[in-house]
């Protein structure tokens, strides 16, 4: 920031500092999460889908596309890979034959239940330097930012 202030005193570079820190934090958090999941031979996106199915129950491919923020082609590929690994099933929705419902297999459910406790502990470790009040402030600020950027509150 100091260098920009010298080179371009007419600009306020403070947004660059905020966004740069968010980007760096995102990369470091993703690295910490990915390292944990690698111990279970999982990718971060695999746990995201499996975890969504565990907490929300069977989902359509369309719902998972929105939750994962990927294209329909990408979610199809991801579901194919999870079916091949034996973690999910794909069935035609009996109530809407044009829709496909994705659900956990018993093996997928067992895996999520095994992984999630350590996942929460890992996230606790990753946020360990923040006190409860700081976490609440950060969560509130990030929620406000996400809504302002057009994300759905959650």
TrEMBL record:
<protein>
    <submittedName>
        <fullName>MarR family transcriptional regulator</fullName>
    </submittedName>
</protein>
<feature type="domain" description="HTH marR-type">
    <location>
        <begin position="15"/>
        <end position="147"/>
    </location>
</feature>
<dbReference type="InterPro" id="IPR000835">
    <property type="entry name" value="HTH_MarR-typ"/>
</dbReference>
<keyword id="KW-0805">Transcription regulation</keyword>
<keyword id="KW-0804">Transcription</keyword>
<dbReference type="Pfam" id="PF01047">
    <property type="entry name" value="MarR"/>
</dbReference>
<dbReference type="InterPro" id="IPR036390">
    <property type="entry name" value="WH_DNA-bd_sf"/>
</dbReference>
<dbReference type="InterPro" id="IPR039422">
    <property type="entry name" value="MarR/SlyA-like"/>
</dbReference>
<dbReference type="GO" id="GO:0003677">
    <property type="term" value="F:DNA binding"/>
</dbReference>
<dbReference type="GO" id="GO:0006950">
    <property type="term" value="P:response to stress"/>
</dbReference>
<dbReference type="InterPro" id="IPR023187">
    <property type="entry name" value="Tscrpt_reg_MarR-type_CS"/>
</dbReference>
<keyword id="KW-0238">DNA-binding</keyword>
<dbReference type="InterPro" id="IPR036388">
    <property type="entry name" value="WH-like_DNA-bd_sf"/>
</dbReference>
<dbReference type="GO" id="GO:0003700">
    <property type="term" value="F:DNA-binding transcription factor activity"/>
</dbReference>
């Amino acid at each position: 920031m100091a260098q920009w202030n010298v080179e371009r005193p007419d600009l306020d570079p403070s947004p660059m500092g905020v966004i740069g820190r968010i980007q760096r934090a995102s990369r470091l958090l993703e690295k910490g999460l990915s390292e944990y999941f690698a111990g279970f031979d999982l990718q971060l996106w695999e746990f995201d889908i499996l975890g969504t199915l565990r907490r929300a129950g069977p989902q359509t491919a369309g719902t998972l596309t929105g939750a994962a923020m990927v294209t329909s082609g990408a979610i199809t590929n991801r579901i194919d890979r999870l079916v091949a690994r034996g973690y999910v099933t794909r069935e035609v929705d009996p109530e809407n034959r044009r829709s496909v419902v994705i659900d956990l297999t018993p093996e997928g459910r067992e895996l999520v239940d095994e992984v999630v406790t350590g996942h929460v502990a890992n996230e606790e470790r990753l946020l360990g330097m923040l006190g409860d009040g700081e976490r609440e402030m950060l969560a509130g600020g990030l929620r406000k930012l996400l809504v302002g950027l057009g994300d759905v509150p959650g």
